[in-house]
Structures are given as structure tokens and as C-alpha cells.
Amino acid sequence: MARALRLVSGRESVMVWHAETALPAGTDLVVVPGGFSYGDYLRCGAIAARAPVMQAVRRFAGSGGLVLGVCNGFQILMRNQALKFICRDVFLKVERSDSPFTRGYNAGQVVRVPIAHGEGNYVADSETLVRLEGEGRVLFRYVSPEGARDPAWNVNGASNAIAGIVNERGNVLGMMPHPENHVESQLGVTDGRGLFAGLVDHFKQAA
């Protein structure tokens, strides 16, 4: 994640230890990364939920600061529909391009990025789903390579094929796929770059 941010923005990230109680002064973006090991078998996010620094992250988000949580950084404790750890590329439809996180894409664009999780099957009751959809809070959705909603391509069984959502204020994005893993041309796919390029553009415009 730090490498992806550096490659796209040209700036270095600051690592924050879990026991810290404050974020560095002048923080623009907080990223809670993924990369949990051991196949998600050790209660994803259980330690982070109790880390002192997360109070500072909550305050930062509450003040309107941008927060990105990827995979274990946005872990919903529900097993994948197939009850297996899944590690593969998936296709996502970008539902909106008017958010700080998606302005580097076009609405309706289909991008290819990896997933790697055993607990990522996003589940919500029907009332919550109607509200999320009605408020335009779904930013990324699992689709076929052609962009069609297809259960065969909703690899973890997420409700409404949801892969990424924002909070009510639109300043916190949680997503299961890993855009940071597809930013370098050497890997053959650079579709994840748009998310970080969009954030860079957002901060340039805000400056």
C-alpha cells in the first residue's frame, strides 16, 4: 500500500504504530491496509479494533478527513459464501466517479483488481441495502468482465454484489479488493492506479 501511494503521488507515507494515540500533524489521508496472513483464520480485525490509534482514526474521520480501509482494513466478519479463502483477480464496476476515491475512473468503468480473503461476504438487511443504494453509497460492485451483474462473478456472495461502500459523509471508503496490488505495469494490470490518482487529484484541487 505504501509503495502504491508513493508510485502514484510521489510522496512518502508515514507509518503509524498501533499503540500511538494521535495521527501525525497535517495528515491528508488515513489508510488502514489489508494483507492479513494465515488465510483469515485468526479473527480479522480483532486486535485493530482495540488499538489505541483507532480512536485517533475515528476522530479524523469524524472531522471529515478521508479514510480508506482495504480488505482487513474493512473486514466484515462473515465467511465467504463458499466457506473458502479466495485469492484471485475480480472485476469491479465503478458505480460513481464523483467521489474523492473514484474521480480517477469513469462511472460505469470496469476495472480488474485482486482479492484475497476468507471473510469478505458483505451482508446487510434489506432496509440497509435499500438505503445504501438509494443514497448512492455503493462505489464498487462485483461484475463480469463485460460489466454485467452475474452471480457467477460475485465470488464471495456479497449482498447486491457490493465490493466497496462509503459512509454517509462520503469521506470513508471500505472495500474488500486490493487496488494497491495493481498499480505497476510490470504486473500487467494497472487498474488500481485510478483510485490513488483520483485521491492525488482531489488533494491538488483542494489545495
What can you see in these coordinates?
It is a single chain. This protein is α/β, with parallel strands linked by helices. Helix content is 20%, strand content 20%. The protein is built from 4 helices and 7 strands. It has a 7-stranded mixed sheet with strand order 1-2-7-6-5-3-4, with helices on one face. Helix 1 crosses helix 4 (193-206). It is globular and about 45 Å long. The mean pLDDT is 89.
Please describe the topology of this protein:
Blueprint: H1 2-9, E1 29-32, H2 53-62, E2 66-70, E3 86-94, E4 110-117, H3 126-134, E5 138-143, E6 162-166, E7 172-175, H4 193-206
Parallel strand pairs: 1-2, 2-7
Antiparallel strand pairs: 3-4, 3-5, 5-6, 6-7
Helix pairs in contact: 1-4
- Poorly predicted runs: none
* Portion in helices: 10-25%
- Label the overall shape: globular
- Separate helix tally: 4
Got a strand count? 7
Radius of gyration: 16 Å
Structural class: alpha/beta
Order of helices and strands: HEHEEEHEEEH
Structure, briefly:
With 207 residues, this protein is of the alpha/beta class. It has helices at residues 2-9, 53-62, 126-134, 193-206; strands at residues 29-32, 66-70, 86-94, 110-117, 138-143, 162-166, 172-175.
